[in-house]
Amino acid sequence: MSVRRFSDIAVIADAHFHELNSDFCLSGDTADGEGMSLRSWADTRQSTRVFNESAGALTAALDEVAKRRVRHVVLLGDYTDDGQKSTTEALASILRRYRDAHGTAFYALPGNHDIFGPCGRHHTKEFLKDNGNTILISSDETQAGPGTVINRAMYCAGYPEGLGPMAEFGYFRRAEYLHWESPFGGSDASCDRLYDAASPDGRNQYRLMDASYLVEPEDGLWLMMIDANVFEPLNGAFGRGVEAAFTDSTVGGWNAMLRAKPFILSWMNDVAQRARMLGKTLLTFSHYPALDPFDGAAEAERFLFGETNVVRRTPRQPVQDAFFTVGIEVHFSGHLHVEGLTRRTRANRNLTNVAVPSLVAFPPAFKVVTLSSDEISVAAIELASIPVNPAILDGYAREVAFRGEEVDRSFASSSYGEFLRAHKQALVIHRYLAKEWPAQVAASIAVMNIWEAAKCVTDALPALDPATIELAKSVPMTELIADWYCLRQGSCLAFGHVEAERLALYRIVAACCGQQPQAHDKTTEGFLAIFFGALGSFLDRAQNAGKSVTIKFDDVMDRMPA
Questions:
Q1: Nearest to 483 by CA among 527, 421, 400, 440
Q2: Which residue, 176, 120, 197, 106, is CA-closest to 152?
Q3: 471 in a domain, yes or no?
Q4: What confidence tens digit (pLDDT) does each residue in 480-524 have?
Q5: 3-class DSSP assignment, residue 195
Q6: For 389-446, how does the pLDDT look when each residue is reduced to its tens digit (9 = 90+)?
Q7: How large is the average pLDDT for residues 250-259?
Q8: pLDDT single digits (tens) 304-357
Q9: Which of 418, 355, 416 is nearest to 545 (CA)?
Q10: d(Cα 504, Cα 290) in Å, to the nearest integer?
Q11: Is 109 helix (H, G, I), strand (E, B) or coil?
Q12: Between the CA of residue 86 and those of 20, 92, 266, 501, what are the distances in Å?
């Protein structure tokens, strides 16, 4: 069987596009001198993603796609900030512009931030005013009052309405597709793509839409796009379709898919079998990971912090079993804003999950897939070198001046990568230590430097040269903690952003102070030992990874030519 080669595919995850040019408060109160609607720094420094920088990052990514003449682009969910109506419409306009100018074809699938349940949900966000003060913009009329402006454009729609602005990007059939289907058959009508969902007590019953689809954009290439959003009705009495009546898909992912959407697994199995029989090259995409994207390196978090977002969102063993059963070989995921590749083998079959990082969190990157019928090569394309809009940084500076706070180091960033690393340091102070770490441990560690933290764990430190000791004494633990999160999220992509002498110091500390995840005595010393052990795991994971990887398909010889 001869090898067939296909056009390249770009995979962009978690763009979280925020429309800077939208006047969400209608009157223009939030617009600065350049007319931008800026989200506040106070919200940004507590969020695992940045907001105002998203438009520039998306434009840079799409420009890079055009420069590389990549034909197909998969939007791997969370393509909007929070599914706001005006934001989704603005994003669709941008995609059309690139399609018309460069012939780029886009294939979208929904993430937990793009759409909610059958009826949608309200959002309330904080925006900057010219003087550095803030104002709340809400779609919820019950929030009306001093300091709050009501604007329905902030509303996040549900299924199928929320798909409307993005309808032409894969969700519905187009004439140029060689093949298109959904799990329900050949019809692309929303009313023909429904499934039943009910609360355990039977009091809340719904027919919900699933937006999954299979598309053949060129001969022999199948892209299976899985809508892995799960909205399970809850027990109790609720108004019809209200947000409170459903679980949020944010935590559910594939763990919930096995329970709530078993018909998707049956369809995946059918597609995989047909792909092998017809000689099609099949790639599978969903917003949520099918394998642990940290490949076990984040197991320490359960012992350190309990049931964090990362722990709850990690797919469990039955998900892996299901993917092997249905015969999927390569799956791309987003959601956790992590760079990673996880492989599992069973009975001479391989399963690979390619985790794609976000455009709006460290490290900012997307993937380009070069593929043939027997293998694919996946390369990370970094956006760290792009500039940060100085008008945005000026807005942040006005805000902290109004609040009487110190200027954050991120405001002086010369590049996007530098800004996002500094943003991670702000997250350590304003989110992680404040909200996720044990309070007593956080208070102790926050005032330490690396030398003091290492000595807290053990007195048996190896003999170190004076320069290394001085470095350990000069670097606050808050900076190591920020790099710990950068290494967790960025894997090998973090190496280019953390100074070599610091990486060398981190390896020493991890080796002499770290221990494997296990129950500890709740002391600062016990916590630090596991924390440093995780640092060693992140370093090893990054060292063993690469910015590009080649994945061979298992069943090439089993395929029959079309």
A1: 421
A2: 120
A3: yes
A4: 999 999 999 999 999 999 999 999 999 999 999 999 888 767 899
A5: strand
A6: 999 999 999 999 999 999 999 999 999 999 999 999 999 999 999 999 999 999 999 9
A7: 93
A8: 988 777 888 889 999 999 999 999 999 999 999 999 999 999 988 899 999 999
A9: 355
A10: 33
A11: strand
A12: 11, 10, 36, 47
Residue 561, preceding peptide bond in cis (omega within 30° of 0): no
466 burial level (CB within 10 Å; 0-12, 13-18, 19+): exposed
| Sign of the torsion angle spanned by Cα atoms 38, 40, 43, 44 | positive
- Average pLDDT estimate for 232-255: 93
H or E element in which residue 250 lies: helix 249-260
Three-class DSSP category at 514: coil
Cα separation of the two ends of the chain: 11
Question: Is 336 within the bounds of a domain?
Answer: no
Q: Whose CA is closest to 289, among 266, 312, 269?
A: 312
Token reading at 483: 């790099």
Is 87 a residue whose pLDDT tops 70? yes
Task: Classify burial at 337, counting beta carbons within 10 Å of its beta carbon; exposed 0-12, middle 13-18, buried 19 or more.
Answer: buried
- Which residue shows structure tokens 């249905």? 326
Residue 380's DSSP bridge partners are: 367
Asked whether 285 and 329 are in contact (CB, 8 A), the reply is no
Q: What is the pTM (predicted TM-score) of this model?
A: 0.94
pLDDT at 25: 53
Give the position of tokens 């599978």.
284
Furthest CA-CA distance within the chain: 71
Round to whole Å and give the CA distance between 364 and 391.
20
Q: ∠ CA(279), CA(284), CA(288), 5° rounding?
A: 170
Domain count of the fold of the chain = 1
Burial class (CB in 10 A: 0-12, 13-18, 19+), 133: middle
Q: How many CA atoms lie within 13 A of 224 on its CB side?
A: 23
Phi and psi at 385, nearest 5°, equal: -85, -5
The pLDDT score that the predictor gives to residue 306 is 83
Give the model's pLDDT for residue 71.
96
Q: What is the pLDDT of residues 191-223, one digit of tens each?
A: 999 999 999 999 999 999 999 999 999 999 999
Q: What gap in Å lies between CA 381 and CA 339, rounded to an integer?
A: 11
Peptide linkage before 160 cis (omega within 30 of 0): yes
Is residue 440 in a domain? yes
Number of residues that this document lists for the chain: 562
Domain that holds residue 423: 414-544
Does 533 fall in a domain? yes
Count the Cβ atoms, other than its own, within 10 Å of residue 302. Answer: 14
